[in-house]
Amino acid sequence: MLLFGLFGNPVSHSISPRLHNATFQALNLDGCCYGRFPIIEPSTLFSTFHTLHLEGANVTVPHKEVAFEGCDEVRGIARNIGAVNTLVREGTRVIGYNTDAEGFYQSIASFGTLNNALILGAGGTAKAIAMILKEKGVDTTILNRSLQRLSFFEENGFTCKTWDSFTCKAYDLIINTTSAGLKDEELPCPKELLHTLLSQARYAFDVIYNQQTPFLKSAHAHHLTCKDGKEMLLYQAVLAFNLFFGNRFDAKKIESVMRPIFEL
Length: 264
Ligand code: NDP
Fold this sequence. Notes:
alpha/beta; six-stranded mixed beta sheet; 11 helices; 36% helix; binds NADPH dihydro-nicotinamide-adenine-dinucleotide phosphate
């Protein structure tokens, strides 16, 4: 039996077990099983991984930074982001990766070439998206409600603004990474500012999935090409699954199993 799992708090809502268990079955990986493991106390994350003899795990809110700190080795873009969402056992060592960043980038492939982008919000998801856009040569600005979380982005060379210090200009892509609209009807920035931004943009992306947020409704009203966070979630899962198995499977095959579960 090879055991895999999801670490987070909460994890009860997650579709990750469905995604991964369906893919084990489709690839005839008998004896593989994926479960949800709520981690209440962050200091127990790695002891849980070892006690359960997991082969791999996904890490979600609020433990991605703790996972980054505790890995034996962090590889790829996760080193620049400072957050890990995928853990893979290699012998006695635990290797950390971040597939949110590449998952986001794959999900906007249909947008084509982008010159610049504006990220609304400065939390963990914004870090992953900002670092992959930087890696891909997209000129990226960060706009956040408050100053405190902008220091990471300033240190990494991004143009950073708060609502007060921001002067509008045209961006190809506007990305909402805030939780505004997740459980309320709020916009991620003041209404007038958003209107001006959307009226000059070509594309809008919201990391929130499974619902039409006020941000996406406004973007649709401005006739932008829009996308929510579903495909980002799909691609991060495809990438994580393949990391669990040393990237030996065809990503398209994994995607073909997982995509219908998202009803995409
Ligand atoms: P964080 O808590 O790390 O960051 C939240 C950010 O949102 C902060 O910059 C905060 O600003 C801002 N914010 C919160 N509320 C408001 C508001 N009402 N108006 C304006 N700004 C606001 O969140 P995460 O980065 O961890 O997660 C953000 C979202 O991303 C969640 O909705 C989550 O579900 C989604 N997500 C989607 C994924 C996918 O695959 N599609 C993957 C991971 C996350 P301030 O600094 O001023 O407080």
